[in-house]
Amino acid sequence: MKIGSRTILSSFFLLLAAATTGFAQASLDSVNQQAQKDLRDAVKRLSDTRDSIREERIPLARRINQLKAEVREKRRELERQQRAQDSRSIGLDALEQRIKAIQDENDYVSGMMNQFLQELQTQMTSGEQQKFESRLDAIRQVLDTPDTPRTEAYAAQIDSINIGIERLKNRIGGTIIPGQAIDSQGDLQEGHFIEFGPASVFLSSATKQAGIIESHQVLTPNATALNADLDSGAATIVANGKGDLPIDVTLGAALAIETSKESITEHIKKGGIWVYPILFFATLAALLAAYKLFEIFSIKQPQASQLTPIIHKIRQNDKEEAISMAEQLPWEFGPMIKDGVNYSDQDKELVEEVMYEKMLEAQPKVERFLSVIAVTAAVAPLLGLLGTVTGMINTFKMITLFGTGDASSLSGGISEALITTELGLVVAIPSLVAHAMLNRKAQSIMAHMEKLSVIFVNGLPSKARNEQYAP
């Protein structure tokens, strides 16, 4: 039973496989036929497509070439536009730089013209300031206005240059300018300024008095009158336009020096209170120096040869004659030799002591008042230094009160500080020289006395003749 079932099943499967194979074969044939048909259709479409491509290739190639040419042309145009743009950018930068350079140059020129205007106003004389006052005010008003257009500012600056040129022409050839000045009496006068070169003279129309303008720092200056020649010369020039006029070649320096000169009394008074003790010591030292000069140089000094007869008389035991001869010797030499004669019969040491005592008595007479002169030489600089310290203290006080702007407030203290030192040295130096000279002369006299005493003692006999006084 088992073998039969297996056979039946095998046969079934074989039949089924045969049926399936037949069906698959039939399907494969139909698929093959359909594929061939599709292939034929595809080949035909491919052929048609190739034909259409061949037909369209030439126009497309032409179109592509045309587009490529257009692209190349566009690129060239783009390059041209870029170059033009670059050129415009470069030209714009250069133009901006040029404009900036021109503006900088204009600013520099404007600054220079402003500086010229300031220097012009500084260098102008008072007459020129009065003449160009309205134009200068207009120029300053334009330049000081913040919103002034550049054209107006440049026009004002050019006008200042024209004023400078006009002023220069007038100064070279000389000009007469109507104006006002203050005369030597302090009155305001109407008149004319005579300007030629650096010199300026004002002639009053009312008083016909002419004066030199020393300073032009103010609009209305002071006119310093000199003499009638200046008056007549200035009047002739104003009336006729020409004439002779004396000129101060120093441009006011000589006049300033002349007016600044002061007498000795005025100079000393500026030294303050400490000048008076210095002058006291100076007077005292001068009087004593003159007295000592006369006193010392009037002393006659005997020669050593005048002692020989006296010593000879002593050796001859003629004391009276020796004393008489000693008394004839001048000044203190006579008393000194006389005492030596009186003690000539004693030991030489005793004679030396006696004569030395006379020398000591004579020394104060020779050297008296010399110490006062020496004290003056030492004290005068100290008083001058004291005056200097006092003057500087006053100067610092003035600086504290008024500052350093006003020089006149400081001149008093500075004068006191310097003049006292000057006078102290002026007194000390001659006093020191006089003391040295007189002291040297006094020492010379004392040395001569000592020399004569030594000669006298050496000329005495070697043994004292006092045997007659022995017991």
Radius of gyration, CA atoms, in whole angstroms: 65 Å
What is the count of distinct domains? 3
Discrete helix count: 14
Main sheet: which strands, in order across? 1-2-3-4-5
| Residues in β-strands, percent | 5-15%
Instruction: Give a count of the beta strands, DSSP E runs of length 2 or more.
Output: 5
Which spans have pLDDT < 50 for at least 5 consecutive residues?
464-471
Estimate the mean pLDDT confidence.
81
This entry's quaternary arrangement is single chain
Classification by helices and strands: alpha+beta
The biggest beta sheet, please?
Answer: 5 strands, antiparallel
| Helix-strand pattern | HHHHEEEEEHHHHHHHHHH
| Helix amount | over 70%
Distance linking N and C termini? 222 Å
Shape: elongated
